[in-house]
Amino acid sequence: MSVNTTDRLGARAPSRSEVRRRGRGVSHARTGYLFVAPFMLVFLGLLVLPLAYAAYLSLFQERLIGGTVFAGLDNYTRALTDPRLLGGMGRVALFFLIQVPIMLAIGLLAALAIDSGLLRAAKTFRLGIFLPYAVPSVVATLMWGYLYGQDFGPFAQLAGKLSLPAPTFLSSDWMLGSIANIVTWEFTGYNMIILYAALRAVPHDLYEAAAVDGAGAIRTAWSIKIPALRPALLVCLIFSVIGSFQLFNEPQLMQRLAPSVIDSAYTPNLYAYTLAFTGQEVNYAAAVSFLLGAVIVVASYAVLFMSTRRSRS
Amino acid sequence: MTARRSNVLTVCMVLLLIYFLLPLFWLFIASTKTVGDLFSSFGLWFADDFSLLSNIRETVTNGGWVFSRWMGNTVFYSVVSAGGAAFLCALGGYGFAKYRFRGNGAMFGLVLGAIMVPTTALAIPTYLLFSKASLVNTPWAIILPSLVSPFGLYLMRIYAQDAVPDGIIEAARIDGAGEFRIFFQVALRMLAPGIVTVLLFTLVATWNNYFLPLIMLNNPDLYPITLGLAQWSSQASAGGGTTGAVLSLVITGSFLSVVPLIAAFLLLQRYWQSGLASGGIKA
């Protein structure tokens, strides 16, 4: 391409193009704005504006007398002492602390195994483990819901054949774990692919140096690969914070299978949705959404902060 | 690299692979069964009756082709959203990577921070804004919010930094090409793997989106497949005697809805993997 244009347009008097270049030096900055303007406009209109609007709405309350009135931070004080919201927050925090380490550990081990060169048919594993990511969470939840089920789920069938009691995946004791399993199934592959892509970029002379020093595959993985994966792991971790705290699809769909186990405040997001669309408490829902967003941002920064501090020490 | 293979490791990975593929295998098996066989035969193997084709016919044509309509809506929403988002990200990422201008760093930082804003926390205020603008219950309600992809912009910026050498842009300038001509005729080709990556991941995000359509749409004619399947499944779990037929629709419909995305990932894997490889590392 560039060869082509050089043939056609190149080799003119260098002084002229020099002058032109310098003349356009200022306008290049303006061109930069033109390039980023479409994205930034959409970004402002559909991300910043709704956020600002939510912040605004959250400061009002619908009163029986007087209609919508300015309420200051009342919605927030109500939210911070709302046992239903706090219960949901606690539940997703627990979910995060248990599910995410398991998911990232499996993703990391799978990425290391595929990258190690010790596997037959490594490509099959890579694609196979990633495949669930392409499955909509609605479908994943429906599917696992049937698999968990007592009627024709294979686990219940197997238990029946062995004359054992069928496992109660949808009971209140198991539900959070059952949802965690669905999320792990969906997203391990995605994390694995990000980690694998990062592994591919580790300079190979480091491996050779390690091999010369007599390091085996496990030693190389521990001392060279995992430290090199730190930034990619951080990305995975932050996406997991965001994903866990805004859990909605899986519990909302599982609710139909186990209405007595999953109430309308099972996760903060389910609560916000219920407030806005069944309870008509739009202002309070905005405050809850806003608070949820704030919790996610704070948690993400905490993760970021802790990991940069650890890498310095 | 020497071909030392580890059998232990391979066996462990096979077990892991079974965990990830078994539910999909089950879904396929289940969509080949009649409702009766679903309950009476073992879940992980075929029944005597192979009724995949009649199930598909049933699913696709049921209720005046409504499933086909949902499928068409999904394709439309996700292709338009992903195309638009990838284009905005390519343009913006290239702009942030290759031009110096006032506020470059600050604006990029703002976008980077927005990666952490949860989409579902945005959805409710977006719904309220859209209902003021009478955009609720229109395709715009799904497409517009899906156009913003902060992570896509981040990925494109990282990608553009390496994939388009400054020297080539300079050379094209000396040749007298305008900035946009350089982008469209020179840079765009070099950005292709990055664009495919953003395209595919936005496509998946829109295709799989459930929360946004759930909030925005109440006209079943506009439903994407996720919302349609959820509606069918609630009919199946709520209904009494008619449950069976709908159950089979949910299962076969689920199976049909995952096939296109899986195919897209398999066909385009060379591109998105190289795109991710350059984007994923420099976080």
UniProtKB/TrEMBL annotation, chain A:
The chain crosses the membrane at residues 31-56, 92-113, 125-147, 174-199, 228-248, 284-306. This is Multiple sugar transport system permease protein. Its main location: membrane. Residues 89-303 form the ABC transmembrane type-1 domain. Residues 1-23 are annotated as: Disordered. Belongs to the binding-protein-dependent transport system permease family. GO terms for biological process: transmembrane transport. It is found in: Cell membrane. It is a multi-pass membrane protein. The keyword Membrane applies. PROSITE patterns: ABC_TM1 (PS50928). SUPFAM superfamilies: MetI-like. One of its GO terms (cellular component) is plasma membrane. It comes from the Bacteria. Keywords: Cell membrane, Membrane, Sugar transport, Transmembrane, Transmembrane helix, Transport. It comes from Kribbella shirazensis. InterPro entries: ABC_transporter_permease, MetI-like, MetI-like_sf.
From TrEMBL, chain B:
Keywords: Cell membrane, Membrane, Sugar transport, Transmembrane, Transmembrane helix, Transport. GO terms for biological process: transmembrane transport. InterPro entries: MetI-like, MetI-like_sf. The chain crosses the membrane at residues 7-29, 75-96, 108-128, 140-160, 180-207, 245-268. Its main location: membrane. Signal peptide: none annotated. It is a multi-pass membrane protein. One of its GO terms (cellular component) is plasma membrane. PANTHER family: ABC TRANSPORTER PERMEASE PROTEIN MG189-RELATED, ABC TRANSPORTER PERMEASE PROTEIN MG189-RELATED-RELATED. This is Multiple sugar transport system permease protein. It comes from Kribbella shirazensis.
